[in-house]
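Today's session is about reading a structure prediction critically. Students often jump straight to the picture, but the first step is always the sequence itself: look for stretches that repeat, for charged clusters, for runs of hydrophobic residues. Only then move on to the predicted structure, which in these notes is written as discrete structure tokens rather than atom positions. Here is the chain we will use throughout the hour.
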Amino acid sequence: MDAGLAGLLGGVIGAAVGAIGATASAYITGRKAEQQARIQVQAQLAQAQWQLRLE
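Below is the predicted structure for this chain, in token form.
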């Protein structure tokens, strides 16, 4: 294998690894945002129920 082909292959492999890493990071970030939104909705619901009981 000559140096040009090795460099091209290394670039392709590096890009593939980078794409997999970016996809995994986006997935994890999305899951965390979903979890945070769920917690926030539950807190708002609890606050609304508390206010209704006080009225």
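Discussion point for the tutorial: The radius of gyration is 24 Å.
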